[in-house]
Amino acid sequence: MHLHLYEAAVGAAAALALPAAIIGISGEPRGPSLHEVRPTVAIVETVLDYPLPGEFLAGGTPAAAPVENRAVPAFHVMKQQVSLADYGLCVADGACDPADAAPTGADVPVTGVSFLDAEAYARWYSKARGQTWRLPSAVEAAAAAAERFGGESFSAAADDAANPSVRWLRRYREEAAVKRPADPEPKPRGHYGPNTRGIEDFGGNVWEWTSTCYARTTLAADGSIESVTDNCGVHVLEGRHRAYMSNFVRDGKSGGCAVGTPPENLGFRLVRDEDSMIARARNWLRGAFRSAMADTV
Amino acid sequence: MFTRRQALLGAAAAAMLAAMPPLAAAANEAEVAALPREKVTLVAPPFVHAHEQVATSGPKVVEFTMPIVEKKVVIDDEGTEFQAMTFNGSMPGPMMVVHEGDYVELTLINLETNSMPHNIDFHAATGALGGGALTLINPGEQVKLRFKATRTGTFVYHCAPEGAMIPWHVVSGMSGTIMVLPRDGLKNEKGEPVRYDQAFYIGENDFYVPRDEDGNFKTYESHGDSYADTLEVMKGLIPTHVVFNGAKGALTGDNAMKLKVGETVLIVHSQANRDTRPHLIGGHGDYVWEEGKFANPPAKDLETWFIRGGSAGAALYTFLQPGVYAYVNHNLIEAVELGATAHFLVEGEWDDDLMKQVEAPGPIPVN
């Protein structure tokens, strides 16, 4: 029995191509190898036009997502998606369930993970590093993705209030027109290159979980929000286009997708709020800069 | 006169017959020779070659030519490659349409590039294993078979070479359908004529693709290489793919079938190997010949119809509402997970009387 357990542990380690030291033979606290800090990118406080996720109804018919001008506080985001090997550390530590991803020696992002898996990894990673790491909200994902942000690809608005089929047929044709050949094989990290913020692989073949719940919103006649029904059993994923998936779904093909080809793979990266001390310093500097500017006027 | 000799030979060495000179037929050969002949060019499913619904002339000899093509195809959205065997290059093979009393004259060609002997068994034909005993040909050979269409309906044809090769060739793609229409066209249960604006032919395939130790579908260099592993999966009777027209998604997206409100469609659905249960989501079967045989009155207003493995059925429906319709095998696991889904795109005016969203989704009111 013991021998079997030992073999299983060795097998898992071999599969993940981990150095034996990480498995905790020395009795060190487990968790990500601290000498291998995952690179992050600082996203400064920004303001962006952001199409709200979810479904919208106006006057009882589907409406286009309203675009809001949103301020996003500064945060840090992982430069790369969490890798299969990194995720494997959490699995080896008993804090994450194994991903539905084929073992490989390559440095690929973890795929075949649900929202719940991503949350579990964030908890484990935070504990191991003594910091608060979490999934980005959809608007943070938009801020980090910058020019690669996909959002909703096609208008959800009713084309003809009296004939819902016009919208259904238009959406169907639009989706068919952009359908690409499937390319589900995860690529080595960095394959899709960095965006202008230096964040890699956003908009590749791995869609990223966010902490934003799916919501159905009823709009009043003036466009203001009349009522919102959140469904936090479904979360928003951002990528080439926006997708909504049940929290337990690990395979993009099996979950619902707003438009186009369903997500080829589901993965994630984590964010961290700016350290409060640095934030205070930055705010102070900004304030000093503003008052200096004000002085010059 | 030759009947007895034919019977003996047929029983003794069916396969040898193919190599023998054609036997002179009975006295009506001259009559058949005097019939008008029509050469039909087959088209790839889901489309059906142009044909008369009501025959405007007497019986004729309808000539078809079909090459048998062994080729590698992709059968799903994961890029799974499959060693297919096809009639005319498509899965299913093309649908042939004749009228009762016509003679079907098929030239079957086994391309030189193929690797295996093939033949054809027409469920619509009488004798010689449906023609299978008279059509076994090697790569580089061709054969010409004639049979009289004596019974009306939709009938499967398939390859049936011998023994274990039979199911393998069929689940590798070698099946199709022939529709024998009554000379005066289709009729409802009261004997009144019914017509269709367009006919579509949907052939359902069950595939049995072996997996490697990681659970990924295996690809093979040749049909022969795939045989032993495939046979093992086949014997488990659980298909890895259940698809329409040879591939998951073959009848969706750009290839979805297009119609207008008010148009009537005849959907012919075949399954050469396994039972299935077509269902048009949001629509019905106005008239359905479940067994596919037009001498029987059609069933009316069906929600789902049953197609026995080894048969083809026909459903007639007039679209009443526009939209995107999914046409599925209503074993929904097979429809969604294994691939048995097609789409109809129907344009036209929405009918509020048939359906209306009285109240849009919103929060549950609190009293």
Protein described:
The complex is a heterodimer of chains A (297) and B (367). Chain A has 297 residues and is of the alpha+beta class. Chain A has a single domain (40-290), classed as paralog of FGE (formylglycine-generating enzyme). In chain A, 28% of the residues lie in helices and 22% in strands. Chain A has helices at residues 2-15, 84-92, 115-129, 138-145, 164-178, 276-296; strands at residues 40-43, 46-51, 55-58, 61-63, 67-72, 75-78, 133-134, 207-219, 225-238, 243-246, 266-267, 271-273. In chain A, strands 3, 4, 8, 9, 10 and 11 form a 6-stranded mixed β-sheet that branches. Chain B has 367 residues and is mainly β. Chain B has 2 domains: 2-183, Immunoglobulin-like, CATH 2.60.40.420; 199-216 and 240-347, Immunoglobulin-like, CATH 2.60.40. Chain B is built from 6 helices and 19 strands. Chain B has helices at 3-12, 14-17, 29-34, 165-171, 223-235, 332-336; strands spanning 37-39, 61-74, 81-87, 96-99, 103-110, 121-122, 141-148, 153-158, 175-181, 198-207, 241-244, 257-260, 264-271, 278-280, 285-289, 299-302, 311-318, 323-329, 341-347. A 6-stranded mixed β-sheet of chain B has the order 11-10-13-17-15-16, with no helix packed on it. In chain B, strands 1, 2, 3, 5 and 7 form a 5-stranded mixed β-sheet that branches. Chain B has a 4-stranded mixed β-sheet with strand order 4-9-8-6. The chains are: A alpha+beta (297), B mainly beta (367). At the A-B interface, helix 5 of A face strand 19 of B. Chain A: This is Formylglycine-generating enzyme family protein. Chain A: One of its GO terms (molecular function) is formylglycine-generating oxidase activity. Chain A: Pfam families: FGE-sulfatase. Chain A: Residues 177-197 are annotated as: Disordered. Chain A: Residues 177-188 have a biased composition (Basic and acidic residues).
